[in-house]
Every structure is written in C-alpha cells, then in structure tokens.
Amino acid sequence: MSDAQALDGDRHLNQLAFQRAVSGMAFISADGIFVSVNPSFSSLLGYEPDELIGVHVQVLNERPEVSVASVSPSWLAYYTLETPSEMRLSDRNGSTVWAKVSVSAHELAGEKPGSLLYLMQLQDITERKRAQLAEASLRMSEQMYRAITEHCTDIISKHSLDGLYLYVSPSVQTMLGYEQEELVGTSIYDYFHPHDLQLMNTAVDELESRTALKLPPYRMRNKEGDYIWLETHLRVIEAADEHGREFVCVSRDITDRKNTENQLRKTNALLQKISSIDALTGVANRRSFDENYAKEWRHGLRFSTPLSIILLDIDYFKRFNDNYGHHEGDICLKQVAEALKRAAKRPGDLIARYGGEEFVIVLPITDERGAAYVAEQLRQEVELLQMPHPSSDVSSFVTASLGHSTIIPTRDLPPRELLVRADRALYQAKQEGRNRSRAFGHG
C-alpha cells in the first residue's frame, strides 16, 4: 500500500469517527463559520444535518441580543477555554441547552503557517443541569419556607383531616402563648370557643368538594384561658406519605378588628336607639312610630290580623304649662309617659310621643275589645298620678282623653285611615267632657 493510499485510509477512518461520534463535534473556521458538523452536534441543537454549514457560531449564543463580537474581539475568545466548561447554548427553537463545551485549535496541513481550524466539542448535560437547578430551587424554596414560617407573625400550621396538629410555626408562642411542642399531636378542636364549634364543623365539611377555604372568623383559647379572634385561610394538600390528605392553615389575629367592629355595632345601636327615642319622655319618637306603624300595617295586611291605635291627649295641658311653667310641664309629660308604660306593657306594644302633649299607642294583633281595655287602663294610670291641675275644667288632677280604633288592614284602605278614625274618636271623647276613652263609631 502506498503512502497516499494509507493517508486516504486514515482520512476515511477519521471522517467515519467524526460522523459517528456520540459527542457533538464541529469544525469552525478562524472567522467563526461552521465548516463541518457531525450529526450528534446538529441533533443536540435541533438542526438537520449540514444545516449549520456556512453559519456563524453566533447562532449558538443563548442571548442573541448580545453579539459575540461585542463581548470579545473575536468569537474565539468567547468560546475557547483552557478546560471544558458548562455553557448555556440556544437551540434552533431558541430553547436553552446546557452543554460542556471545549474548543481546540488544529493547524491546517498544506496551508500557510498559522492557518488554524477549530474543533468544538459539545457534551449534552441538559438533564443533569436541570436536575441540579431543580434541586437548588427546592433548597431555596425550603430555605424561604423555613424563613417564612419562623419569622412570619401569622400562625402557619399543618393538620391531619381530623384536626390534629402536625406542625405549627414559632409565632404561635407570641400569638397564643403555647410552645410548638405543646400543640403538636393535640386537636385544634380542643381550643375552639364552644359557640364556634358548629360553625367550624360546617365550614370544614366544605373541604369534601374544595381544596381551599377561608374560614369565618372564630375564637381560639390561648394559654391563659382567654379567647382571641382569628381569621384563617386553609388549603388541602396531599399527605407526605401519599396516603390521604392534610391541610395547611395560615391564621391571623383579628381580635383588635373584631373589638372595633363590636364597638361600632354597639355605637350604631345606641345611635339608632337615640334617634328613635323622644329625648324628654324616653318613649319612642314620631319617626320611630312612623316606621313601626308601617311595619305593623304590612303585617296585618299579610296575615289579616287586627291592628289597633290609641291616641291620648293630656287634658288642658296648655293651662298646666301657663300655671306651673314649662319645667313643670316637662315633668308632667315624663310622669304621664311612665304611667303609659305601666298600662301598655306587652312586648309588641309601642308607646310614642306623637307631638306636644299627645301620645300614640300601637297595639298589634289587638281587636276592638282589647283596645278598649288598654285605653281604659291608660286613662286610669294617668289619673292615679294625682298630679295637681287646678286649671283643669274636668278634675283637680291631671287627666287624659283617649280615642281608639281597630282595623284589619286591606289593600283598599290607606294606612292613614286608622289614625284618622282614632283622631275622630279622641275628638268625641273631648266633646263628651274629657277624662274618658271612646272607640271610633261608638256613642
């Protein structure tokens, strides 16, 4: 075999080894152009065989907006390393490929001295690198989780589905006074306020069809035996042993907020009460009467039940004021109001100051006979006050005249009709000599 034949044979073997090599291999010219690329190299980067031939090595740059030329005076300095190095490359679709990269220079035989061809070799380490990155991310997540659970002011806890504490964050000591080990293994239900147990059971039942839940505010007992209000977000997770499920809770102390809400409710209730009470007599005012009367009219209309109204007027009250002065007149109104409370004492009855010396009494589900009885009781209670009234033409003491009326509300009657009839009955009582009660339509 001649030297030429032997040389051709070596070249053929080298070419065969290059094409069949498991590792990616490519020859690159001094100006960075791919001259020859083996199948492993093109396959690793998602290219068809020979698709990279004539293309600049810049195509491998994972950040195409940063050109190789801008990073280094030549492509070679960017990729040539003394030892193989892990690099992020970009495949044909722009996705990241991790590879161990090495570049070596080879002098071209038969060319002018210094003419070089560069061999780039790639070893695919994408899967290993992804596993490393995933592990690093997991470690970072664990560190972040530990930092959150150890320093978060909210309580983070994990429970079995039957409510046992499996884990609780250190913040439980600050919020509830318990050490972590005191709660682990105990049931969360042992710490709920008794009045909130059913509420919590109902909420937790929803976990059958949901994986996340915001629990309604509830009270939990701290180590000193007091109760604080908590707001909890709950999420169901798969148990660590892959059997069954567990749930994670993030609980926040809302005691201050609940106390503020309760105080606001009390304040609003007080304001509502103040706005519905006559400041002088302590009975309902005209506004409260209007609201109550409208409600009771609707009730009577719906259920066809009788509704009665009594109008009461203090006899010759203007003369009382003229004789004793307005201060004594106010005292008189207060005592009359107290007398009326003693006579109309059913929970549903309403006594209101209708205006000046006039009062109105609403008697729900009361027929004419019942209204007549209450009216007479009212009259007697006022008379029993024995408040001197020398200016009266009917008695030497304060007295009252009353008119009452009863209606079963219908859609054909306006609500005011009952008041009009009671007023006519009151007028009749005054015409007949005062200090008496009269029903509408009766002589």
From TrEMBL:
SMART domains tied to this protein: GGDEF, PAC, PAS
GO molecular function, one term: diguanylate cyclase activity
Origin: domain of life: Bacteria
PAC domain: residues covered: 83-137, 214-266
SUPFAM superfamilies linked to this entry: Nucleotide cyclase (SSF55073), PYP-like sensor domain (PAS domain) (SSF55785)
Keyword annotations from UniProtKB, A to Z: Nucleotidyltransferase, Transferase
NCBIfam families xref list: GGDEF, sensory_box
Protein name, UniProt field: Diguanylate cyclase
Species this protein is from: Paenibacillus filicis
